[in-house]
């Protein structure tokens, strides 16, 4: 797969997540955050089982214990991010949640430098800041006072950033992105179920009330979206992946306009433009400079 096609997959993942944000928010009226996370990721695991088995049959070598350990660790990071986001959404506004979740765009290159002294292409820094500014403008350009929910969303962004980094560091060595997705989904489902048993009281009628949101978040947002992320990241860098995935906010605004009749303000339109320019620049500028170096 080419670098460009990988980024297209990441864009599709961002579009799916943007569409699914409403499902995550409305489901909280019926079920607790840990139950939602558990059911969501168990459904996601069921969604990718056929693909994981097909991938395993076609694989030239078997996975090692180290591979599975890496998959498990990535699953823990995913669970921490998903759980913190769901809990935080109970006590913060959608505007704040959208902006603060987008902090992972800037956190990825910073954490990559801090943890591994891995310096990205210089264009990543202004592009990450431009994408973050775009998300901020899309959210309305202001924060309504930071609550405990806001700080939980900030912590969620840290774990999203770490998950993106470690997919590239640990998950891609095996060449088995579908199995990576299956394992991390199962880890999230089991951890969510354990947390539910200690913290929440869920009944069948409440789960049925949130069934449409759980189905969409599990099959589409998680099963398809996170698998596209895992596949796409095999052929691109973590900072570039973070910027491409930040299109989630852009697509959320577009779907809101198309399906709910919402209209973007001038400020929101500028935010869309900043995200789009950041995605184009992070893709084209490194490629153009590479071609310039090899040109006779």
From TrEMBL:
GO cellular component, one term: plasma membrane
Keyword Transmembrane helix recorded: yes
Membrane topology of the entry: Multi-pass membrane protein
PANTHER family assigned to the protein according to its UniProt record, in alphabetical order: EAMA DOMAIN-CONTAINING PROTEIN, OS03G0707200 PROTEIN-RELATED
Cell location: Cell membrane
Parts of the chain that traverse the membrane: 39-56, 68-88, 94-116, 123-142, 148-166, 178-198, 204-228, 240-260, 266-288
Protein name: EamA family transporter
Top-rank lineage group of the source organism: Bacteria
Swiss-Prot/TrEMBL keywords: Cell membrane, Membrane, Transmembrane, Transmembrane helix
Annotated ranges, domain EamA: 6-139, 148-281
């Amino acid at each position: 797969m080419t670098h460009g096609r990988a980024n297209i997959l990441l864009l599709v993942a961002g579009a799916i997540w943007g569409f699914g944000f409403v499902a995550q928010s409305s489901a909280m009226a019926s079920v607790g955050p840990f139950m939602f996370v558990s059911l969501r990721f168990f459904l996601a695991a069921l969604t990718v089982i056929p693909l994981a088995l097909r991938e395993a049959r076609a694989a030239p070598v078997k996975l090692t214990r180290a591979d599975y350990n890496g998959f498990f660790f990535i699953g823990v990071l995913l669970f921490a991010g998903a759980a913190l986001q769901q809990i935080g959404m109970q006590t913060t506004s959608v505007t704040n949640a959208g902006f603060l979740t987008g902090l992972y765009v800037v956190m990825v290159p910073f954490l990559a430098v801090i943890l591994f002294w891995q310096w990205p292409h210089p264009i990543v820094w202004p592009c990450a800041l431009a994408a973050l500014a775009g998300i901020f403008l899309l959210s309305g350009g202001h924060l309504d006072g930071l609550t405990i929910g806001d700080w939980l969303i900030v912590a969620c962004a840290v774990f999203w950033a770490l998950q993106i980094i470690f997919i590239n560091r640990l998950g891609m060595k095996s060449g088995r992105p579908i199995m990576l997705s299956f394992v991390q989904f199962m880890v999230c489902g089991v951890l969510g179920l354990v947390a539910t048993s200690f913290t929440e009281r869920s009944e069948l009628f409440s789960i049925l009330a949130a069934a449409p949101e759980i189905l969409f978040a599990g099959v589409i947002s998680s099963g398809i979206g996170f698998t596209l992320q895992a596949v796409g990241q095999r052929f691109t860098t973590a900072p570039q992946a973070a910027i491409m995935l930040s299109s989630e906010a852009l697509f959320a605004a577009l779907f809101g306009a198309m399906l709910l009749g919402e209209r973007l303000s001038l400020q929101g339109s500028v935010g869309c433009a900043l995200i789009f320019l950041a995605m184009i620049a992070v893709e084209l500028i490194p490629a153009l400079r590479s071609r310039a170096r090899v040109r006779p």
